[in-house]
């Protein structure tokens, strides 16, 4: 019961990213309605990669690719995953979001083709007032400038409930069994 009460307390996440020549990011996580700061690991180092052992699978066991394909081909599973993303997005309260993106390629024609793909998406991203997204093409040269700032509030208990509903749904269980067998 105590764990549920702790998970019901909101977590505030503030982020900032800026890219000109190199990417600079900041992340701040605060708990208990913004009163208790939580430590955030630095994103630079990380642990060194271990060498992968050359394991030989047992004869007759499906490969990872075959398992993943069986899961994706399972009936209604892709639609259930999209619904999961929508449910998770509805549980995150965007308090502020500002994104300015300027992008261009070396060839103006390639930039035009890229903008043909991204332009309609930027129009669809016209979000309500706490969010502002602006994507601008740059035809003069190769450019990728990013300025992003924002803060969101998350209630961990709500996310756990959505994830449990996803994992325990018949569609997901059917897809996991199909992946274990390696056949859709």
How would you characterize this protein structure?
This protein is of the alpha+beta class and 184 residues long. The chain has a domain at 63-146 and 156-181. Helix content is 39%, strand content 29%. It has helices at 2-7, 64-73, 77-91, 108-124, 156-167, 170-181; strands at residues 11-19, 23-31, 36-38, 92-104, 131-137, 143-154. A six-stranded mixed beta sheet has the order 3-2-1-6-4-5. Strand 2 and strand 3 form a beta hairpin. Helix 3 (77-91) runs antiparallel to helix 5 (156-167). The relative contact order is 0.21. The model has no long low-confidence stretch (mean pLDDT 83).
Quickly describe the structure.
The protein is an alpha+beta fold and 184 residues long. The protein is built from six helices and six strands; from the N terminus they run αβββααβαββαα.
| Content-based structural category | alpha+beta
Tally the beta strands.
Answer: 6
The chain-level mean pLDDT equals 83
Shape: extended
Name the helix and strand elements from N-terminus to C-terminus, one letter apiece.
HEEEHHEHEEHH
- Specify Rg, calculated over alpha carbons: 22 Å
The share of residues in extended strands comes to: 25-35%
Query: Order of strands in the sheet with the most strands?
Result: 3-2-1-6-4-5
Helix content: 25-40%
Beginning-to-end CA distance, first to last residue: 39 Å
How many helices does DSSP assign? 6
Instruction: Give start-end ranges of low-pLDDT stretches.
Output: none
User: Main β-sheet, in a few words?
Assistant: 6 strands, mixed
């Amino acid at each position: 019961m105590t764990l549920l009460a702790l998970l019901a307390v909101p977590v505030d996440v503030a982020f900032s990213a800026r890219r000109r020549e190199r990417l600079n990011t900041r992340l701040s996580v605060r708990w208990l309605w913004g009163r208790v700061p939580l430590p955030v690991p630095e994103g630079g180092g990380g642990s060194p990669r271990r060498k992968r052992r050359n394991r030989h699978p047992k004869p007759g066991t499906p490969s990872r690719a075959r398992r993943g394909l069986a899961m994706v081909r399972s009936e209604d599973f892709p639609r259930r995953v999209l619904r999961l993303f929508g449910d998770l997005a509805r549980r995150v309260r965007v308090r502020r979001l500002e994104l300015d993106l300027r992008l261009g390629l070396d060839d103006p024609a390639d930039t035009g083709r890229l903008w043909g793909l991204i332009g309609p998406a930027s129009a669809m991203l016209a979000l309500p007032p706490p969010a502002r997204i602006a994507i601008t093409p740059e035809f003069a040269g190769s450019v990728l400038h990013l300025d992003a700032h924002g803060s969101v509030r998350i209630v961990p208990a709500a996310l756990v409930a959505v994830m449990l509903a996803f994992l325990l749904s018949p569609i997901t269980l059917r897809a996991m069994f199909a992946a274990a067998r390696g056949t859709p």
